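Pasting two entries for a bug report.
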Amino acid sequence: MQTLPKERRYETLSYLPPLSDAQITKQIQYILNQGYIPAVEFNESSEPEQHYWTLWKLPLFGARSTQEVLSEVQACRSEYGNCYIRVVGFDNVKQCQILSFIVHKPNQNSYGGRY
């Protein structure tokens, strides 16, 4: 078994090969199934000391489908294609971010495919 080439790792799932569109959709569906609140964030840098990302819009409190979240990812990507973009899941009971993963890196079409 071969390891991935040495490169900077960004978020949850970053040690895996890039996610496909179907895998991104499944991760977003997991967020929704768990009752977490999805949000889209962006930042020019993904340096570890950069803890604060800019929220694209308010968290998607009423999101019921993956397509709603993916539409916001696409809109953010259209506006800030030169930034890292990630999807996060917030737990409103624990009042904290539970997970996050990169869906777009600058200088690439996206992390997976079109999203």
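Entry 2 (this is the one that rendered wrong in the viewer):
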Amino acid sequence: MKIVLVGYMGSGKTTIGKLLAKELEISFLDLDEVIEEGLGDTISNIFIGKGEIFFRKKEHEYLNDVLSQKNNFILSTGGGTPCYSGNMETMLALADYVFYLKISIPGLVKRLIKEKDHRPLIKNIDDGDLPEFIGKHLFERNNYYLKANHIIECDDKVPETLVTEIQQLLG
């Protein structure tokens, strides 16, 4: 079984993915970590040194490689992964399930404001401007996210509840 989690940064893809993998007793993979390991550098350094176009090409290659494996796994993607290089179509074609972890803008702001220092994309954005930034970004990305097989509403739910919801959809 191949399960892919998509959603905006801070939506809980890694947290939910790890818990779900433990419950299902299958591997958890984080696409950003796979890319960093493969290229021997951090995502931030790759963006700075080689640019976003290079990164997006590599992201597409690694996504294809991971999804072409025969193993059972849960894959957490980067927030932008579904929006480039036909990646969402690739996920839908090669994975058994694609789940969109959907959170409201206020919910994302509440989570991300605490993590700004560890999030290069929003590190230098004033707290007051964060809702507008996230709103604009979500508007641009939402059409890709909404192509997922299942949409999981995540606001005001603990991770364990979300894992249970996903397990019920797996049958």
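Dev reply: Rendering is fixed now. As a check, the viewer should reflect this: The longest strand covers residues 97-102.
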